Amino acid sequence: MEILSNLTSTFPNFLLAGIPGLESAHTWISIPFGCLYAIALSGNSMILFVIITHQSLHEPMYYFLSMLSATDLGLTVSTMSTTLAILWFNAREISLDSCIIQMFFLHGFTVMESGVLVAMAFDRYVAICDPLRYTTILTNSRVIQMGTLMIIRSVVLIAPLLLLLKPLYFCRANILSLSYCYYLDVIKLACSDTRANSICGLIGLILTTGVDTPCIVLSYILIIRSVLSMASPKEQHKVFSTCMSHIGAVAIFYIPMMSLSLVHRYGQSAPKVVHSMMANIYLLLPPVLNPIIYSVKTKQIRKAILSLLLATKQR
User: How confident is the model at residue 116 (pLDDT cuts 50, 70, 90)?
Assistant: First the structure.
């Protein structure tokens, strides 16, 4: 009866998965995972620190970069605890309420990061296509408004989606396929009607990826058109090089996210280890690579980090 009550519950406990088929090697797998989490936390914290402490970086472009680092930190922290707990202690059980809280931060920071990438594309568009009005368009108050709008959009889109999970009835063995709670993974285990959840999820997808991706693409179409009208190839190369960091950030965010969604919806026949690896790549790739990309490609950030490291060494 106790087993039956666990399988047929409105408020169940879920079992998270580690790396399927490699359970015996979890301790060894935790070493590269721990290193990647450390790189993500230290890299994004350093970007935030240098932007806050260096007056020369108090410009819209770097404000948006600090928002990107903050969302990457949020994404890292939101899943790090459950992933490392499984790899180190095999602590797989999680309640529905804890699952909902984790999904709120995970999906909320994902929506926020998508919004930040749109804001950064707009920043590049104004800087290249309308440079004389850059300071009047992207004022500090406008940047704050854009940041606030990103937070409000995340909460408004994610909160109803997760609250709709509460009335659902779960009557299957509640074993998730990932090391953290992912909305599509949880919803598959429900036995009651999930049409409202599907509609709400579709609306959320349209209002995030369906809006943000075309906005980024449109920004770059206008940027390319403006750059190609420049006479000097040297000028063209210089302007394009200022966009490379952002293009890299967009690629490492959207490609894994779309790949994971496709695997979850259409890749049922794929090995479980593929699902698990895709899920971890989706979450770890942007927070790990974004600080590296911006440190290497952005001269001002690179100089600020080097001056900080040299000052620390001299002490």
Answer: very high
